[in-house]
Amino acid sequence: MLTDLLALFAIALYLTAAGVLARPLLSGRKPLDRLALVLATLAVALHLGILLGMHRGALDLHFFAALSLVACVVAALTLVVNLTRPVAALGVIVFPLAALFLVLDTFVAPPTAPTQLAWPIKLHVTLALLAFSVLSIAAILAILLAAQERALRVRDFGQWLRALPPLTRTEALMFRLIGGGFALLTAALLSGALFIENIRAQHLVHTTVLSVVAWLLFGTLLYGRWRHGWRGTRAVNLTLVGMLILALAFFGSKFVLELVLHRSP
Question: For the chain, how long is the longest CA-to-CA vector?
Fold first, then answer.
């Protein structure tokens, strides 16, 4: 089947791009970032084409389809970030995950039919998707930041540490992404309040509550950064906790509804 072959090709491109980016982190050899970005761009284009083909060009919000869509958007945003602030380790983490979720959606998930959505709901979903994707990259940067700080404390100056950007640059990029993700999440919550009429009937109570909690955490972090200069472990922990809550909001209830209770979203 053509879709399966294209998916296998995209998966191979994702994994090859991640391997190319990992090369200087592991061996100290000359980085080949441009080659990796070209391979990853092809993978993202194929991934998007597969999503459009499998789900007939519509937004499919079933569990595995949503995971694959988020992974594709995160991979695309990783490419954009690397154009301006090269962080090779982002691709090393993101591209294999995109490959995994593409495998699950293409070869494991049962066939699904996209839900027909009115344009206001599509706008809300798009804003939420972008917010989740931007904040996901910020969370990955938080993990890298924690690893850098720990390595510096124990004086582990390995090749992987020298290949990463300076700690201050990683932190600054993380906060920029949190700021952008927070703005998108704010817009998503406002659009949801305006356009979604009955959140209880649509099984969105838990999603809404957890999303608001995550919004409050990220807002507190940004205020603390602006007012008190929060950084380091506190910033990393708040970022990861906020992202975990947001992931539960987006996919926790969806997992229970579809894979445990076998209900439609």
Answer: 57
Same domain, 112 and 129: no
Q: Could you identify the residue written with the tokens 């608001």? A: 212
Query: What secondary structure does DSSP assign to 193-249, as a single string?
Result: HHH-S-TTTTT-HHHHHHHHHHHHHHHHHHHHHHHH---HHHHHHHHHHHHHHHHII
Q: Are residues 170 and 251 part of one domain? A: yes
Whole-angstrom distance, CA of residue 43 vs CA of residue 49: 10
Overall domain count for the chain: 2
Question: Quick one: 135 and 255 in the same domain?
Answer: yes
CA 126 to centroid of chain Cα atoms: 14
For the stretch 190-230, pLDDT in tens is: 988 886 665 544 556 778 889 999 999 999 999 999 988 88
Range of the structural domain that residue 165 is part of: 122-265
Alpha helices (H) in the chain, listed in sequence order: 2-27, 33-54, 63-84, 88-103, 119-153, 159-163, 167-195, 205-228, 232-247, 253-255
Tell which of 72, 90, 116 closes a domain.
116
CB 171 within 8 A of CB 147: no
DSSP 260: I
Per DSSP, the three-state class of 2 is: helix
Please give the model's pTM, rounded to 2 decimal places: 0.87
- 256 plus 164 within the same structural domain: yes
Residues 105, 234: one domain? Answer: no
170 Cβ neighbours under 8 A, 6+ residues apart? 87, 141, 144, 145, 148, 164
Q: Is 101 found in the same domain as 165?
A: no
Tens-digit pLDDT profile for residues 174-183: 999 999 999 9
95 and 161 share one domain: no
Sign of CA dihedral 30, 137, 219, 151: negative
Alpha carbons within 13 angstroms on the beta-carbon side of residue 9 total 15
- Regarding whether 219 and 154 lie in a shared domain, the answer is yes
